[in-house]
């Protein structure tokens, strides 16, 4: 995949998000997706200016991702990390309405530490994927991955969990079973693999890259009592996480957890 840098990359990724949202909404409305039996499927804070992407040296283990935020009215904004532990000024994605999108997942498929793809789930359960443009004139269209994704109440991509070299997806169904989907370079997904049951004890499950410095992708999860737990990645598709380790309590002081990667590099 071609490398874009600086302002050019920022514009390209904004266009990626705008096109992906539009395609997902149009596709869902047109009824192009067929549900699969089992899917192969704020007010802004005052902040310092965002760091130029040319000054960033991310890796797959410590990626650099923007934050996407939506308002109830459907407006979508991006915030770039400023490398000081915060975010730069927000930028609105014009002509974009996120109403009808029920989940979004940024991914780094080529493992260079930068976002190069976006999964979106429409209200009817259809999952779409869009890759980052090769250049400013690239008008490649989002693709439909499959239907039936509304069986999941949580979808995320902490990174490469299987050793396959791409950012994989994990999804939790409404009975609390966690599933793993191994990703391919083009954003398509392999058959799902069961990780385990009982994950509905958590209100939040997040991760972005390597959290403990061993080179493998990890996650953290917050339970209903506000205790945060760490799950060390193994790189094994059939058993991707080691036994959980308690991080600490009191995390129910926060109503949301998220991870965009390295924010103070």
Plain-language structure description:
InterPro entries: FG-GAP (IPR013517), Integrin_alpha_N (IPR028994), TAT_signal (IPR006311). This is VCBS repeat-containing protein. It comes from Streptomyces morookaense (Streptoverticillium morookaense). Keywords: Signal. The chain is mainly β and 265 residues long. The chain has one domain. The strands form 4 sheets. Strands 4-5-6-7 form a 4-stranded antiparallel beta sheet, with helices on one face. Strands 8-9-10-11 form a 4-stranded antiparallel beta sheet, with no helix packed on it. It has a 4-stranded antiparallel beta sheet with strand order 12-13-14-15, with no helix packed on it. A hairpin with a 5-residue loop joins strand 1 and strand 2. The longest helix is centred in the first third of the chain and has 25 residues. The two termini are 24 Å apart. The N terminus is likely disordered.
Write a concise synopsis of the structure shown.
InterPro entries: FG-GAP, Integrin_alpha_N, TAT_signal. With 265 residues, the protein is mainly β. The chain has one helix spanning 6-30, and strands at 67-70, 76-79, 91-92, 101-107, 117-122, 127-131, 143-146, 152-159, 168-173, 178-181, 193-196, 202-206, 219-223, 228-231, 245-248.
């Amino acid at each position: 995949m071609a490398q874009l840098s600086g302002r050019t990359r920022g514009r390209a990724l904004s266009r990626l998000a705008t096109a992906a949202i539009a395609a997902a909404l149009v596709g869902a409305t047109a009824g192009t997706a067929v549900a699969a039996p089992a899917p192969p499927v704020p007010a802004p804070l005052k902040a310092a200016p965002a760091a130029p992407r040319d000054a960033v040296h991310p890796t797959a283990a410590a990626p650099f991702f923007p934050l996407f935020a939506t308002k109830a009215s459907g407006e979508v904004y991006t915030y770039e990390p400023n490398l000081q532990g915060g975010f730069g000024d927000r930028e609105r994605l014009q002509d974009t309405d996120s109403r009808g999108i029920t989940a979004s997942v940024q991914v780094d498929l080529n493992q260079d530490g930068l976002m190069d793809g976006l999964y979106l789930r429409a209200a009817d359960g259809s999952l779409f994927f869009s890759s980052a443009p090769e250049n400013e004139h690239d008008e490649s269209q989002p693709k439909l991955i499959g239907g039936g994704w509304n069986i999941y109440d949580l979808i995320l991509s902490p990174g490469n969990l299987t050793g396959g070299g791409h950012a994989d997806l994990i999804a939790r169904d409404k009975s609390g079973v966690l599933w793993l989907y191994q990703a391919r370079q083009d954003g398509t997904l392999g058959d799902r693999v069961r990780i385990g049951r009982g994950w509905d004890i958590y209100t939040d499950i997040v991760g972005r890259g390597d959290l403990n410095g061993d080179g493998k992708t990890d996650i953290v999860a917050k339970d209903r009592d506000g205790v945060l737990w760490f799950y060390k990645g193994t790189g094994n598709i059939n058993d991707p996480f080691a036994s959980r380790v308690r991080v600490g309590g009191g995390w129910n002081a926060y109503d949301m957890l998220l991870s965009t990667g390295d924010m103070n590099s």
